[in-house]
Amino acid sequence: QVQLVESGGGLVQAGGSLRLSCAASGRTFSSSAMGWFRQAPGKEREFVSAINWSGGNTYYTDSVKGRFTISRDNAKNTVYLQMNRLKPEDTAVYYCAAASVVRGLWVPEVYDYWGPGTQVTVSS
């Protein structure tokens, strides 16, 4: 079992930055791939970024490449999403998730555990 709790969301002006954190409990965190997804009102949940168990491989959706950075600290059971140069279209509820697989990390269905989400609002 893995329990996930996101934090760090909030209201920021366009061009600003936020760092999301996802704290995990459970002994399997260090062997789990971790992902960030987001869901805007009226839209489907979409992949944002993922990182493998060691942090050696990272993945991003095209719209956030060069602006967002995912990282993890296995000693702290925490995964981060540094978001820079935020845009109004980044406004959404952001979720972190844990997966035991190593492929297909852009697909929500491969994830076993999800956090409750944290709201990110970017004003123009």
Please provide a written account of the structure.
The chain has 124 residues and is an all-beta fold. Helix content is 0%, strand content 49%. It is built from no helices and eleven strands. Strands 2, 4, 5, 6, 9, 10 and 11 form a seven-stranded mixed β-sheet that branches. A hairpin with a 4-residue loop joins strand 7 and strand 8. The chain is globular and about 40 Å long. The model has no long low-confidence stretch (mean pLDDT 96).
Unreliable runs: none
What's the helix count? 0
The major beta sheet can be summarized as: 7 strands, mixed
Category from helices, strands and their pairing? mainly beta
**SS elements, strand count:** 11
